[in-house]
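User: Could you go from structure to sequence for me? I need the amino acid at each position, not a summary. C-alpha cells:
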C-alpha cells in the first residue's frame, strides 16, 4: 500500500471550515487600511538572497538558521521571503515610488522561516505588513498605532491586547549604548545563556529580549537606553506618547523592548496578549529610516508594522464569537428533466440579477427528502423547489428554511424581485 503524502512539518492547511474566519479578518483589514489611505502592493514570494543579507544582516538567526535558500537553474541564490519589509522597500526603490513623494502601503501573504514548529509559530505563516515612507515626525508613528488599535476594537478583542512602547534612539546613540551593554554583560559572561554570549559580539541589544531566566535576572540590572538619548530622540518619543494619550490609547513604556533587526531606530512598539502563551506578540513594528540607504536608496524616513494572522485568529478564537457563515443563501431543488433545465436557468438568472447572493444548485440527483437535508445543511435561508408541476407552469415553490413563514408559489421570473429585499440588494 502506498504511503499517503502529508504536508511538510510546520506548513499547515487552512480547511474550508476555517477559511471564513480568515476571509472576515482579511476583508476588515483591507477595508480599514483603505479608509486610512493605504494602498495595497503585491510582492513576489521569492527574492534574491542578497536582499535579506543586506537588510536583515548576515549575523542574525534569520539569515544564519531560518531562511529557505536555494540555487535556481541559473545558479542564482534565491530565498523564500522571511519577512516583507525588505521586499516592499526593494519594490519602491526599483519602481521610483519614493522619489519626492510619500507612500502609505500594505501587503499580505505567506512568509517562510525554518523554525521549530509550535503553537502559534509555523514555518509558513501569514503576515499583514503596513509601511509608510517619507514622514520624519512622530505623527505617522501615531497613525500606525491608532490604526491597529481601531482594528482591535472593531474585532472586539481590544481588552485582550496591550501596547508596549520604546525608543531605540539614533544609530549614534545606539552605538554608545551598545558599548555600555558590552561592558556590563561582559562582567557576567560566564552566567549568560549560549545565545546571549553569541549576541554579545554581534547584537548585544538582543540580549535584553532574552527569555532565559538566568539571563533575565542579569538584564534587570543592565543600563537603560533612555539615559543615552539626545534631545531630538527624547522630543520625538515625548510627542508620540502625548498624542497617544490625547487619543486615549493606553500604553506601557518598556525600556527592554527591542527589535531583532538592526535597521530599526527611534520608535518601536508591540501589541501583546497574555492569551496565547509564549507566542504573545500579535503585532510589532517601528521606524527603520536607515534601511533605505542599506538597500541603495537615498536617505528616507520609514515606519511600519507586521501583524501575524495565525496569532490574530487564535486570539479571536479565544475571545470573539465565530462568524456565522453559510455556504448558500438560496438552495435550488429540482426533480425531473424539464425541472432540472429550468433550475439551471433560474440559478443563472439569480446570479445575474443578485450577484452578491450565494445560489447553490443541487447536483447529483436524489429524492426531495435528501435534497432538503442538503439545503438545510448548507445554511441557506430559502429553498427554491421546481418539481414536475412547477416546471409545467414555469413556477417555483419558495420555502423559508430559517423562519416559520409559509411556503408560497411564484412565477420563475418573479423570484429575483421577491428575494432582493431579504439580501439588501
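Assistant: Here is the amino acid at each position, in order:
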Amino acid at each position: 500500500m502506498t504511503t499517503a503524502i502529508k504536508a511538510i512539518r510546520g506548513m499547515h492547511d487552512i480547511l474550508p471550515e476555517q477559511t471564513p474566519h480568515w476571509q472576515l479578518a482579511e476583508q476588515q483589514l483591507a477595508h480599514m487600511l483603505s479608509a486610512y489611505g493605504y494602498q495595497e502592493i503585491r510582492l513576489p514570494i521569492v527574492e534574491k538572497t542578497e536582499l535579506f543579507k543586506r537588510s536583515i544582516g548576515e549575523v542574525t538567526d534569520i539569515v544564519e538558521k531560518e531562511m529557505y535558500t536555494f540555487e535556481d537553474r541559473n545558479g542564482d541564490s534565491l530565498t523564500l521571503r522571511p519577512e516583507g519589509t525588505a521586499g516592499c522597500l526593494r519594490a519602491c526603490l526599483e519602481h521610483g515610488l519614493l522619489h519626492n513623494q510619500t507612500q502609505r502601503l500594505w501587503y499580505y501573504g505567506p512568509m517562510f522561516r525554518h523554525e521549530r514548529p509550535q503553537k502559534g509559530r509555523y514555518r509558513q505563516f501569514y503576515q499583514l505588513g503596513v509601511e509608510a515612507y517619507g514622514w520624519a515626525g512622530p505623527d505617522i508613528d501615531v497613525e500606525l498605532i491608532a490604526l491597529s488599535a481601531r482594528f482591535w476594537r472593531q474585532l472586539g478583542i481590544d481588552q485582550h491586547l496591550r501596547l508596549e512602547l520604546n525608543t531605540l534612539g539614533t544609530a549614534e546613540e545606539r552605538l554608545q549604548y551598545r558599548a555600555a551593554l558590552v561592558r556590563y554583560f561582559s562582567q557576567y559572561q560566564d552566567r549568560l545563556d549560549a545565545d546571549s554570549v553569541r549576541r554579545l559580539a554581534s547584537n548585544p541589544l538582543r540580549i535584553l529580549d532574552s527569555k532565559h531566566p538566568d539571563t533575565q535576572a542579569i538584564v534587570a540590572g543592565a543600563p537603560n537606553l533612555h539615559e543615552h538619548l539626545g534631545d531630538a530622540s527624547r522630543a520625538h518619543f515625548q510627542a508620540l506618547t502625548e498624542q497617544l494619550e490625547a487619543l486615549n490609547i493606553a500604553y506601557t513604556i518598556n525600556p527592554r523592548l527591542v527589535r531583532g533587526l538592526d535597521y530599526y531606530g527611534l520608535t518601536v512598539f508591540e501589541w501583546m496578549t497574555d492569551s496565547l502563551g509564549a507566542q504573545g506578540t500579535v503585532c510589532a513594528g517601528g521606524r527603520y529610516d536607515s534601511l533605505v540607504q542599506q538597500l541603495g536608496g537615498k536617505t528616507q524616513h520609514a515606519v511600519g508594522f507586521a501583524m501575524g494572522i495565525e496569532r490574530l485568529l487564535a486570539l479571536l478564537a479565544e475571545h470573539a464569537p465565530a462568524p456565522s457563515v453559510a455556504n448558500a443563501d438560496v438552495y435550488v431543488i429540482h426533480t425531473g428533466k424539464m425541472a432540472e433545465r429550468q433550475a439551471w436557468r433560474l440559478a443563472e438568472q439569480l446570479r445575474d440579477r443578485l450577484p452578491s447572493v450565494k445560489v447553490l444548485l443541487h447536483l447529483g440527483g436524489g429524492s426531495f427528502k435528501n435534497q432538503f437535508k442538503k439545503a438545510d445543511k448548507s445554511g441557506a435561508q430559502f429553498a427554491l423547489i421546481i418539481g414536475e408541476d412547477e416546471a409545467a407552469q414555469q413556477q417555483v415553490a419558495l420555502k423559508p428554511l430559517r423562519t416559520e413563514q409559509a411556503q408560497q408559489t411564484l412565477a420563475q421570473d418573479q423570484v429575483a424581485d421577491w428575494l432582493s429585499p431579504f439580501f439588501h440588494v
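One structural detail worth keeping in mind: The two ends are 53 Å apart (CA to CA).
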